[in-house]
Records
---
Amino acid sequence: MKGPVATAGVWVAILASFFLAHHFPQSALAFLLFEGSLLAIYYAPIEQSLKTFLGALVLLGLMPILGFVNGYYLEVAIQIGIYVALALGLNIVVGFVGLLNLGFVAFYAIGAYLWAIFGSPQANAFIAGGLFPLSPNWFFIFLVLSIAVGALTGVLLGLPVLRLRGDYLAIVTLGFAEVVRALVNNLDKPINLTNGPRGIAPISKPPLFFEPVLQWAGLQVADATLYPLYFYFLVLIMVALIILVTRRLESSRIGRAWKAIREDEVAASAMGVPVVRMKLLGFAVGASFASAVGVLFAAKQVFINPESFTFMESIGVLAMVILGGMGSIPGAIVGATGVTILNLQLLKSLSIWLNNLRQSGAALTIPLLGSYSFSQLPAQFEPAKYERMVFGLILIIMMIFRPQGILPPGYERKK
Amino acid sequence: MALLELRAISKRFGGLQALANVSLALDDGMIASLIGPNGAGKTTLVNTLTGLYRPDQGEIVFRKRSLVGLKPENITAAGISRTFQNIRLFSDMTVLDNVLVGMHARLQTSLPAILLRSKAFHAQERQAQRRALELVELTGLHGREHTWAGQLSYGEQRRLEIARALAAGPEILLLDEPTAGMNAQEAQSLMALFEELIGNYVKAILLIEHNMRVVMGISHWIHVLDYGEKIAEGNPDKVRRDPRVIEAYLGQGTWAPDARD
């Protein structure tokens, strides 16, 4: 399938799935097809420039339109974006440098709390003068600040622990994440820094600096529809920047040094690679991504508490990287997207479907064996509650049949 | 004055005296060999020289500068590169990338330059690619640039080790059993390569080797180790007649001329 046939096929896939999702706003399946059309663009044997154009069309044009039809779609897209960004950050540490980090969520928490504390009245508790919450305009300054803070904490954690290898490093990073969580959980006394388990709210949203332009254009959009779109584009820009930075690092002496360290640390240092410095840089870059995403997450959620930054969250992001293919940028994106869709959409809609079936009282009739009424289906049987189990099964199956992940590095070249 | 001088190096691992008072000098333009039975301390000497181990005693002087206590990457940057006896390539990287890693210390692009893709970055990267390709060609790996290092044949992997070590632009090249496991013909072509390297790519080579045809064929000077001590040194003719060397390593009659060719 080459040339015009492939091009036509991709167009059909995009437009058909878009119309389906547009006409059946409640159907998770239709939206799934729409998301799948991005994969079709990625795989199709068509010109790179056409791929870029179609990708932009779907992400910048069609997706926001669907957002107007069903706001939940945008919510899903934003969540996917957040996890893609986290997975890309962790991919640098685990996939490129080869350091198992089980506490990646700590950096995410640090970024989130950075904006939560100063972008809400919380900071008044320990800084006098009633200066807080800061005006929404500070959001972007904190976004930049969070990159520096994330990098700094990455280096601070890295300095003492990077002499450790493999399992030992994994345990220490796990401990670090638990320390961070324990700190935010308990730093409500003697000075109330984080408000403890009650969490912080309300956190300022980013500024609507473009509102005058909208008014000038005569567009009246309610804030409730505007903000999801706004966050969607913010996440999109952030992911695009992260991909750009990661790709540029990967194809430079820094990326090569990282991979060399992953392959053989002794040989890398014998070839002139400053191992400790490069590891620290990898830790810092990954941490700064997570921290910046944290700021965005806090602003989007309006309310955060330590529950959002548990160990399971770290494991979830790690699983995305492993499923997608360690050390591969497309892999991290596909892994994060797949897992998020599974959690937010597939299992949930399966539950809803079973529920409807149960309430409809329909029966499955098998000749000679009698019939089974779906109303007898136990109420406990709800796939959404088995998220972790389904997830674990997928991981096991993947490790048996495709241990290198869905899109391992160099996938293009090996073909 | 010698390019590189090891003065009375000693290294102990627990109860084992791996190196005892070993001295060695390497002059500009010289191919020197280090021979001796297994466990004599040859690789330990190379590991000490390249900063993997720190000597208990002794001094390493390279271009009037002491190397003791420097990290491996700094010693490489100073101008001494090595290959490994048990091949240690970056298997999941391409041949070209393996060689490019060797150039790490030479590339000076800063983080902002990498992120912003400045002109200087592109110029350096292009130059590095060109030089890497040149080294790939020199070591006979032409056409394999984009193969994964792990997929190369054994002989090719040994050659890639050499290309990677050369990428750092060293003055001294340490080769740890470069022809191990190769047939006579392959060993012959490597010998030709080593002779081409001297003066063109590196100033001196220190070779660890068990293949006596290679050692006797290209060495200007040979050092013999046994149980961590240097038992003899000299030109090939002198070493092959040395009774201690014959007893400890070469064996009786093996190297009487034309005995086993």
---
Amino acid sequence: MLYTIVKQNSYQDSVNLMLLTNKIATMEGVNKTQIMMGTPANKDIFKTAGLFTEELEAAASNDMCIVVDTDQEEKIQEVLDEVDNYLSNQAIAGSKEAFETVNTWDKAMRALPSANLAIISTPGQYAAEEAEKALDRDMHVMIFSDNVTIEDERRIKEKAHEKGLLVMGPDAGTAVVSGVPLAFANVIKTGKIGVIGASGTGIQEVTTEIDRLGSGVSHAIGTGGRDLADKIGAITMLDGIKALAQHSKTEVITLISKPPAKEVRDEVVQLLQSISKPVVAIFLGEEPHNHEGNVYYANTLEETAAIAVDLAKGNPIKPNYNKLHAEVPAVDLKPEQKTIKGLYSGGTLGYEAATLISRGLNLGETDHDEAGYLLNTNGFQVIDLGDDIYTQGKPHPMIDPDTRIQFFQKAAQDESTAVILFDVVLGYGSHDDMADALIPGIEKIQQETKANGRNIYFVATVCGTDQDPQDLDEQKAKLEKAGVILRDSNNQAALTALAMLDIQIEEVTKELVPAKETAKVEITVSEAIEQLLTEKPSVVNVGLKKFTEAITANGGRVVQYDWQPSAGGNPRLREVLRVLR
Amino acid sequence: MYGQFKTIDEANQAVIDKVVSGAPFLIDVVPAKSVIEELNGKVLLHAGPPIKWENMTSPMQGSCIGATLFEGWASNPDEARAMLENGEIEFIPCHHVNAVGPMGGITSGSMPVLVAENRDGGNRAYCTMNEGIGAVLRFGAYSDDVINRLNWFRDVLGPTLSKALQVKGDGLNVNVMMARAITMGDEFHQRNIAGSLIFLKEIVPFILQTDVNEKDKQDVIQFLADTDQYFLNIAMASTKAVMDSARQIQHGTVVTAMCRNGYEFGIRIAGMGDQWFTAPVNTPQGLFFTGYDQDMACADMGDSAITETFGVGGMAMIAAPGVTRFVGAGGMDDAVNTSNDMIEICIDHNPNFSIPTWDFQGACLGIDARKVVDKGIEPVINTGIAHKEAGVGQIGAGTVRAPLACFEKAIEAYAVKLGLVEAK
């Protein structure tokens, strides 16, 4: 039945009334409704809709006409209340976020004129172009993207260096600037230790260890994995070390690197020895035997953090920090169960595990040519599941458990496997509850192997801090409840796994020897870099939106640039645009 | 390479300078065939790029039937349809004869058209008059009411306005009317009520001075008073006159026309002259009258996107707070965002049309096809939505995007023409 209400001299804009009509139409018991001003044209629309009533005939252009088709007369009052409510509450509550979202560089700069750092997480082939646009706007750059050519990397870094700007990356997964975690980073207490490294789980392991040992970090600068290659010549590393050397709140400098090219290494060491502050350095995979002058060399990430913390606290430096200090669990293994499978989501953590296992097995120098494998000898394997070959079209194992569970299963099927060694990396960007995501897979394997009369042991380390968005203690508790043997550091986890197979590592003790006399390098730092290290950064986040969360939650300012490739990434059109410039 | 210009940017600047210096005046209302030579045969003009009968939407076909009946070429709809199907009536795009037409854009020789004269370029452009809403020819209706209204346009409304404009003498300055209306909340596509009121205020004194009989004067003034969108067609003719003058500079990448025929969306850019670059049209999204929904919406039609080409309409969304909620029922923020997006694909702001709600920035000026492709931001067009069946008429209003592919094709063709890339 049709009910008509004519509100005389009650003008409303037609758009309002269409929106109101849509709203009333969704009310329960309303079969159909139309609300319009009583103009002749609108009356025709009522007719077409089959909602014309005699009462409408008399309605004038300035009368609001409400026609409701309902079987329940009592609905009418409800409709009228809703109409009044709607008309008196028309202010639209815009959705407000803590940051603006833009789609061009120009808008980004208008939205955040103070921006001094860009995080680039576009597909690799566009990252160099966007990084240059950021440099052109006098911003420092963190390139999260990988697949940037080394030629592009050199060009960008040279340009940045000339402008007094810093380029972190490419493939910089993590950094902390003035207490603000960038990309996949942990929340670390602020303190006196400045960290510089390739920018992966090496930095995460060292910074979380520093945090756990009660110290804090001033900055963690990520250089990207190729910065120390001779084609780049450590441009970012050198500028970064100088910046930390000048930064008054940084009292200890910590350097994490894979072994660099000889000439590059010499240049870096010369710089380190020119600094008045103590330095801890780890060249992963090397076995240093001495500390030299102000430079302390560490064998493991754990030792790196421990020396840095002792230096920061003014404690004497011990000859060795690498010993296994955890208890070795009793094991019940079949004779053929002799190997460890390291299945890592963090590349540097995996690399360290592979190094330690190699040392334990006295393998000497090993080649890691095989894609994805950090070690693959005599059934001992360490795999970096974050390697490109495992992440093509799949999420990174820090975000998604599936790849890792598959490799757990594969490892369990290998009868030689005694221990599965792995990492759980917390912090911004990582899975909200990786323990929970992995445990069903772990328990299934334990049940199946047990049914076959075997035991497989899971040994792991959780890389994270109490302040991380995930609950560190809860993650640990869940894993331990599932029977995973947990250790505080990756070193301890690897040594535990080895000890369970009765393999020990002979640790060297290091002495402090004077450094060879070399010419001192002059240390100058640009104003822009100095500013980056003294203030919370203002960030243009180009690409992955989730990186904004860590910044806003830790006092940084950010504008989100929802980046899209020029011409949708179409190469022909990009060429057309280039020639039509 | 770019004629007298050193760079594409210089050529583009020259084109937009012509847009800014454009000076359209509404000078007359005359039978279409008196100013468009081609309409003296069995010819109908239509909206958009060239199209065949069989590709026309049902509403556009309905409009053709209506126009055929109106011209007296057929005595009933079936006969009219047969003539159209048999190819007895030739179709020409409005744009090819200095004209633009709303929705179906169907224009026949006896229909009165508004005459806009661009006193900067010395050229003229034409557009039929707005019929109001409901059952109207432009949405494909061809009932007796529709034909009777067209007869009245031909016999009374057109001649009366023509006489009034002759009394005025030197025409009505459209830029002045638009500059005032944009500060009163019009964007000249979805919302024209301020412009229509200003036009009414300007023209009524002259209507009263004509020798037209009292009843007709009364009817004409009443019709203008009732027709909120009357000014849209004045704006269309005027912006067409300005863009046609600007596109005499045949260099650069400024978009000089955008239009749709329900089948294809077509654009022109300055550097490619008369050539159309087309892609399948989108279907508008928006709000619907009761009983209608998105599934019943007809594909995008009409030359009215000449307003967006000029820089108003959807490009000036923020000017018209009253209709912003068509943009996804959002508020002012959405409207600001839309206009801020649109300026990203334009070269400059038009100082002639300052928009108070946009911090008095001028309307968008000069859509650069390169920027559209580079940024992937498609121009937004505010539009009425027709029912996909002829004769039902308007069922809602909303927005639609100009397809990116048109702009991609245009700049690629231009680069090929300049010999900068190989043709594919």
---
Amino acid sequence: MRAYINSYESSSCAGNTKELMQAIYEKKSAITIDTSYMSETPVGLGMMSYENFFDEMNSVVQSVLNNSNLDNFNNTLLIVGSSVGGMAQSEEHYFRDKDYKQIDPNKHAISVIGDSLQTTFNFADVRAISTACTSSANAFLLAKRLINVEAYENVLVVGADALCYTTVCGFYALSVLSSKVCTPFSEGREGMNVAEAVAAVLVQDKETDDSIELCGVGASSDAYHMTNPDPEAGGAIASMSKALEDAGLNAKSIDYVNAHGTGTQANDKVEGLGVETLFGDVYVSSTKAITGHTLGAAGALEAIISCETIKQGKIPPQTNIEKAENENLNIPLQTIEKDVKYVVSNSFAFGGNNTSVIFGGTN
Amino acid sequence: MKRVAINIISAAKISAPTKIEDLEDKRIVPKMMLRRRLTRNAKIMLYIADKCEFTGGKIVYGSAFGELQSTVGITDAILNETQISPTLFQNSVYNSAPSYFSLLNVDKDEIITISSGMNTSLAALKTAALQALVSGERVLCVATECLDIANIEQVNSCRSFLEAGAGVVLEIAEDESGAVEIESLKEEGTIESLSHLVSLVNMQEKNQVKVFLTL
């Protein structure tokens, strides 16, 4: 069976999906310069507006259900992608009490996201993937394969990560945070913006009038370094090539690459090399200058951006770039209106974990 | 729902009340620089992979609580306003252990890390069976937990083994003859998140090597 995306919604620092796409096409970054996480050190963060992250997550998933052809999720597998799970709550207790007594281990773990959604929606089964920043991209890899082998008719992919001190301060310790809005692919870029998001995507085995096909998935490991990518882009090229092979496409078929594009020196240089090597002059941009890097949610959030790119026939411009480091890349500075058939979305993570997903129009 | 029969090719498990003493890491990881960076989960995972004689290919790794020691080190540093070690942060992600396997063995294949609470090892097994089905290859499925941190008794009152791991190398069976459901052969005191893999290792020890899994 083939896999189709039939309903989706998101919430990020740029708002819901409609507001997010408007911000992308108007090149209006939603990044905030914040000093609350890093005392007296300004860092650019993608901060959502919510009273409770889990309520926001329920609201996004309810919206996907409301806009779907399903009455409920009782016959749907939930696959969550998250890198921090309930870390923010654990931090709150630990920093206040200076002990673990009030921490519920089950609300600390990655599984808290799925447990919370299961209580509200009663899915057929729940799984959670945590491969750092490829978590929800890998959820699509499993979703497509499960539908291909006819194990499930409906799979809901949810990417969810909330901001927490561990990630903000941890990335600062690695010296990869930007003090301003990040500038992916730019010469002299400073680093990334940590961000939070919830993104939910319903993948089904049946095509509807409004479907986007989940055409191909590919994954690889760099086997090079825990945090630095293979400088020859071997892992990135491998994941993109495998996704093309899975989709039965050649590189010339691709209209746009929604890059991982974090804004760090290492990622953008290597990813740019990989895209140039494999695709030549394909349009490529990173929407993280609008949303920041939403970590485990990024694969799902950028899947939605990829679907919208195809539906609207508008390639996202690169926000916040003056001069590209790699001048061989075809980075659009303004929105390009064209018929978009296929989009590649890249996600790369610590441990050299690489995942590429290809989305295709069905009309 | 789709049910498949899998063959268990090899299996291994290990556990200890606090710290597992001999994980043979000097033999398994001869390079000192790499060995020094390994997390406890990584050492246990590498030990299980070695005992399963798995040297490369697709890996599905599971852990309900991931790299607790690294996470505690980071939150302590934030609380005490000291510098966070970059190594601690890079080691804090849930896929650290299989990533170290990838580095050690120059394994460039797919790695999926599952963290499904107390259902982790069953979810990992289902995922490994899917990976074996779509690839036609043998897959390593391994899960570990390392809860041996200071003051763990504040949140743990029922697990006797603070470090444990179990794993199997599996492939899709050509036919279903002789296949059975997973028996509940879990061990008292071992964290529930490992129970299905521990049961499978115990079944393999009893020469029951063909098992049904529902994807």
